[in-house]
Amino acid sequence: MDKHPGNKRRAFHKQAREHVRSLTPEAVQGRTHIDVQTELYLEELSDVIASSDMDCQTDAFLDKPATPLFIPAKTGKDVGTQVEEGELFDFDREVQPLLEVLVGKVIEQSLKEVMEEEELATLKDQQQAFEELRNYQLAEVQRLQEHERRRREEKEHRIAQQREVFKKEGETVQKIAARAYAQQYLSGLLPSVLTSLRTNGYFHDPVERDIESSFLPWLMSEVDNCLEKRNAARQLLDSIIFDVAQKRSGRFKELEAQTTEASEAP
């Protein structure tokens, strides 16, 4: 609590007088204004207001004692009676329905447990049969996949072999064509040279006519026969490869149909 309320009042009056008082003009250049007390009694000016704290302590709260139970006053008279054994309750006769219910419940629960055990055993057998069937199907699928992989590798190997044969045949045909072209070119070049030499009177070949009439036609016929045989062999090989490819395609389709039927079968 504040012990000096007069200080607060004086500060309030002072602020009111300063607010009403006319403002001092601005200081000239080179000088400054400062605050000076003009009251009769000087006092220390401070923004901190002097204060002190006070407190008090109360006693601890005491709980209310429990309210005693209300017990009404006893009225009337006490009387009694004597009950002999077996007059009100026969244990053997009264307990019989309870025993029947208990025994029935026990038998019913036992039958339920036996049925549950049989059902669990049946489910276990079915699960085992299903797992065996699934393992067999997986093994069969793996076997078919492996068989298909081997057939595919064999097919690729055969195709590579046929491509190599075709490549060699192409190279052979190119060599034969180059040889035939060279022979044809040389066969045309040689007579021209001989004709030119004969025309110029250098020499006269007595076998020239024999070569032109016998050897060169025979040579050309042999070359033609050889080329025809090559072409016939190539056509025959193409037809054999086509037939083999058709048979393999039919077998693959039959295998796929069998695989589809086996997968759709239960």
TrEMBL record:
GO cellular component terms attached to this protein's record: cilium
Alphabetically ordered keywords of this record: Cell projection, Cilium, Cytoplasm, Cytoskeleton, Flagellum, Phosphoprotein
Organism name: Takifugu bimaculatus
PANTHER family to which the protein is assigned, alphabetical: FLAGELLAR RADIAL SPOKE PROTEIN 3, RADIAL SPOKE HEAD PROTEIN 3 HOMOLOG
Similarity section: Belongs to the flagellar radial spoke RSP3 family.
Domain of life where this protein originates: Eukaryota
Protein name: Radial spoke head 3
Residue stretches spanning the membrane: none
Compartments where located: Cytoplasm, Cytoskeleton, Flagellum axoneme
Cited Pfam families: Radial_spoke_3 (PF06098)
